[in-house]
């Protein structure tokens, strides 16, 4: 058994590590579950449902040790538009159920490799577009704007949102990360607590600034187990003849699967033990999660990198930490709904404004511009197209532009594998030809992963004028992990890794 797999994805031997990590993930996830539901135009309870199922069910079924699943910022635009187009939330839930079925089918069709065939420029464009949309949608909420009542702004809401943003930004400063409190207690949670206290202060000392009931979280409160069960919403199965449901289901399935595969890949890179997640099993697990979530009123979900990063940084070792965070979410909504209903929506808007900024920060635009027109144009086209159409159409247009650049420079096969059968040792040579594009990322990754343990491989880039950053990432990640399989990797004329900074 390889060293990277000795730890496994599930073990009760590491409870002293996994339980504290699960608590940290819960503290990060709670405001995000509520905030994403708010941004999606869905009942706030639906975000908690999605977090619970993602934490308990998906983590149990998944083959990932550290990945955390829940409602994702990347799906907010789809959910918001979907609920609006279909008219009712229960009809939208039917699309979520169908999306889960599609993901399960994709898993059995071994479609876990599809993430390799989307260029990073388009993916980054998609995430930046979502960030911009989050900022545009949450800014009015942060200042207390209420179109229905004609309120242009609310001083209390502005103060709470401003203080919340300031707290989160200060919390992220490197100077504080050496202190355990700042490292393990998320700034978003502190912002929420301070927001609640500020509103209580306004109620006592400045009533004109106190927030109205519709500016606070409003989760259903139950006094019995039956009352708790009655809070769940069920799909409108009578809408199965509505073609819009099928279009939305396909859109959710594709985008959720793509985001999951990208987040899972990132989680494997963060894993100190270098465990590899089986992507086809992950699609099945996510599909089961979305199927059940849709059946009981939850939002669609994906593997999410923010909560996964929190899990890794907090010292999580196995999937027990993710399961424990789901249990804590369940307990919080079952027994603490009255307390949660004191949270100002301005706090959640502040959290999402920071998330939106991180997705679409100015540094990202500068970075993509420096990478050249082949990366920058598809990136910008994807952003603009999503703003003026929808997520799926924007990605499709970005892909078309990216493919145009590929076809312009790629006229023949980009690499060749040579196996030395005359030698006693296992020797392989990979020649990268003139133009190696992202379209070869999947096949090169598959070829490299299929090499036998103990192989000696030479990767020769002497003939290459252009190697796509996605391919370089595959090669260098393979080299980093090769020692675990006793594989010797010799790079010849390969571009240095520092030239991939920010990719």
What would you say this structure looks like, in words?
Mean pLDDT is 86; it is low at 1-5 and 498-503. This protein has two domains: 13-350, no CATH class; 415-500, 2-Layer Sandwich (Transcription Regulator spoIIAA), CATH 3.30.750.24. The strands form three sheets. The chain has a four-stranded mixed β-sheet, with no helix packed on it. The protein has 503 residues and is α/β, with parallel strands linked by helices. It contains 20 helices and eight strands. It is globular and about 85 Å long.
Structural class: alpha/beta
Secondary structure tally, helices: 20
State the share of residues found in helices, binned by percent. 55-70%
Global shape: globular
Mean pLDDT figure: 86
**Strand tally, please?**
8
> For the terminal residues, how far apart are their CA atoms?
32 Å
Strand order of the largest sheet: 3-4-6-8
Strand content: 5-15%
| Integer count of domains | 2
Round the Cα radius of gyration to an integer and report it: 24 Å
Give the low-pLDDT segments: 1-5, 498-503
Give a quick account of the main beta sheet: strands, pairing sense, barrel closure: 4 strands, mixed
Secondary-structure element string: HHEHHHHHHHHHEHHHHHHHEEEHEEHE
Keywords:
503 residues, two-stranded antiparallel ribbon, 8 strands, disordered N terminus, 2 domains, alpha/beta, four-stranded mixed beta sheet, disordered C terminus, single chain, 59% helix, 7% strand, Transcription Regulator spoIIAA
């Amino acid at each position: 058994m390889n060293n990277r797999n000795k730890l496994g994805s599930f073990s009760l031997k590491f409870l002293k590590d996994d339980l504290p990590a699960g608590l940290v993930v819960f503290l990060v996830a709670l405001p995000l579950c509520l905030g994403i539901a708010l941004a999606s135009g869905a009942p706030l309870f639906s975000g908690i449902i999605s977090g619970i199922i993602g934490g308990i069910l998906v983590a149990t079924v998944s083959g990932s040790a550290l990945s955390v699943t829940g409602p994702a910022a990347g799906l907010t635009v789809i959910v918001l538009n979907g609920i609006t187009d279909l008219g009712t939330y229960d009809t939208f839930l039917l699309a979520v159920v169908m999306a889960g079925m599609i993901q399960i089918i994709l898993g059995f069709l071994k479609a876990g490799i599809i993430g390799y065939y989307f260029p990073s420029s388009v993916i980054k464009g998609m995430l930046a577009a979502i960030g911009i949309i989050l900022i545009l949608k949450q800014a009015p909420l942060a200042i207390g704007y209420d179109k229905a009542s004609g309120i242009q702004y609310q001083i209390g809401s502005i103060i709470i949102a401003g203080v919340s943003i300031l707290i989160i930004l200060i919390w992220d400063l490197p100077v504080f990360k050496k202190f355990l409190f700042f490292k393990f207690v998320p700034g978003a949670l502190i912002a929420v607590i301070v927001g609640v206290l500020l509103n209580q202060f306004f109620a006592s000392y400045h009533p004109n600034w106190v927030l109205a009931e519709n500016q606070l979280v409003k989760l259903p409160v139950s006094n019995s187990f039956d009352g708790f069960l009655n809070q769940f919403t069920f799909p409108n199965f009578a809408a199965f003849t509505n073609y819009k449901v099928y279009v939305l289901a396909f859109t959710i399935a594709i985008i959720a699967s793509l985001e999951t595969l990208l987040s899972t890949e990132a989680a494997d890179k963060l894993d100190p033990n270098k465990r590899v997640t089986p992507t086809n099993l992950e699609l099945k697990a996510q599909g089961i999660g979305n199927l059940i979530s849709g059946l009981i009123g939850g939002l669609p979900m994906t593997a999410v990198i923010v909560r996964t990063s929190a899990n890794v940084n907090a010292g999580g070792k196995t999937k027990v930490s993710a399961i424990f965070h789901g249990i804590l979410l369940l307990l919080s909504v079952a027994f603490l709904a009255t307390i949660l209903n004191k949270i100002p929506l301005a706090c959640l808007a502040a959290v999402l404004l920071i998330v939106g900024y991180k997705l679409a920060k100015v540094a990202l635009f500068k970075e993509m511009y420096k990478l050249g027109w082949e990366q920058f144009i598809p990136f910008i086209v994807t952003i603009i197209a999503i703003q003026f159409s929808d997520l799926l159409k924007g990605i499709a247009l970005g892909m078309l532009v990216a493919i145009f650049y590929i076809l312009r420079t790629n006229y023949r096969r980009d690499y060749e594998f040579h196996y030395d059968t005359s030698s006693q040792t296992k020797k392989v040579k990979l020649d990268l030809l003139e133009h190696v594009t992202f379209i070869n990322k999947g096949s090169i990754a598959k070829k490299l992963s299929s090499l036998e343990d103990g192989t000696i491989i030479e990767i020769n880039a002497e003939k290459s004028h252009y190697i796509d950053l996605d391919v370089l990432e595959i090669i260098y990640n393979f080299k980093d992990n090769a020692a675990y399989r006793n594989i010797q990797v010799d790079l010849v004329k390969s571009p240095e890794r520092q030239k991939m900074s920010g990719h």
